[in-house]
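__Protein archive entry__

___
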Amino acid sequence: MASRRNRRPRDSQREGRNGEDVREHEIKGHGKRRSALSAEGSPPVRKRQRTEDDDVRIVREIRRPGVPPATSINSFVVPDRPSPPFREDDSDGHYVFDLGDNLTGRYKILSKMGEGTFGRVLECWDRKCKEYVAIKIVRNVQKYRDAAMIELEVLNTLQANDPAHLNHCVHMREWFEYRHHVCMVFEKLGLSLYDFLRKNSYKPFHVDMVRAFGRQLLKATAFLHDLTLIHTDLKPENILLLSHDYDKTPPISGSRVGRRVPRSSDIKVIDFGSATFDANYHSTIVSTRHYRAPEVILGQGWTYPCDIWSIGCILVELASGDALFQTHENMEHLAMMEAVLGPIPEHIIKDASRTSSRYFTTSGGRYRLDWPGGASSSRSVRAVEKMPSLNSLLRSNTDASVRADVRSLTDLLTRMLRYDPSQRLTAHACLQHSFFEVSQPPSQRPSAMRDTPSARSVSAAADAPAPHAPAAPMAAQIAQLQSVVADDDAPGPSQPVTSQVWAKPLQREGPPDPEFAPPEAVQQPITPHAAAEPATLAAGALAGALTQLQEAQQAAASAPARQSTRAVVPH
């Protein structure tokens, strides 16, 4: 499995003259400098690695005069918690802070979760609701403020159409303007699927977990498409687990380390900064390189099916442990597609834009990809030659006991990764595929992972080592809740509940959406969400956890002593 480069802050990116990815660095006093990720004029790129430079964000000036400004958070301020002294923003317009600062009187800054061109995401403690939140603070630069207003429009549309939050999209609690920065308050989520893979040495998820992730991701996408929204940047980095909690299985033969598996398969989609209403302006280049559909590369225009292509690539990555198409240039990308999926149909080639026609040639009166003749290097040719077929890739990363599931998944993926976007399955049609026709959820299947402690059945509690002793994860959760109820200020950043702790605390990733490719039209008035009532959420959670623990203890006491029958994932 190929190693990956440490991820760097994202640059604005577009497509270069020869189809390679181009970064635009904003240099103070010198405008923009163009540099291509190619062999000419730049350091060599290790193609088998995945970098931040594959993320495309096009930030445009929003000239729509009717977008109302953000409003103040004055009504949310707690008087006895003063804000820090006023500080000037840094040279890039980022909000300057110290850990422990107050962000208004309501929020206490605990840690920095992420940073991008858009601004920063901070983990904060909400004193009013007694919970951790993720606050995205947009740079004090007009084009990013304008783009943030477009994202707010999308987030408000999602909230208005899914008030119960049943469609697996991130929930924005409220938004406000603070010291000239647009601030968006989100629910606190866990690691992204990409970060979980990375922390797990890129070991693939079990097929049952892939099924659960895929079902939720497709449901979220179907919800977006029903609202005429196209996400345009679906990728593992933008899919977050709801919980940090995980279990660690013992090493199996041929491996020196165990596998980490999430306690819960629940996920939410984040990063709506690039979401576009289908009727609005469509930029030429969308999607992060590895998840970019062929119609985008060929300049044929794009709509809802580009999201389906991205999801297909995501499912392959979750099931295999690594990105399917790891490349930085169009020609190699198309050649990799042909190696995995077969030749590009001639009618697709004929419909390519004039600038994309250079990737093709004629042979015997028929159009075909100019490969390997058009390859940029012999290394590129070797990389394409090593590409396995889709079926071989998935079979090599799964146990023989789930081969039927793998065959079903392969069939689904071939229908999602069709060159012709009109022939791809819709999100609703994907959900009807046989791969998702499983009577039991992953948490109840013998080969699947355990669910979150709050969702465990009474029978599972009987597997505890001692009949009357609470399970360690449950006890840890209760202790954490007790400390929250007792102390108005959170003692520090939230920590994952694990059966074995990480070697180092994780840098959790909130809902970062570094740059934007926003639509032009605004379909709804933008208003900040009302503040939540000052409910005693932590106290209620503690009471619920204690009740559940008591029930589990009673069930364990009445159950006959037996050995645990929970299976270890055969991965």
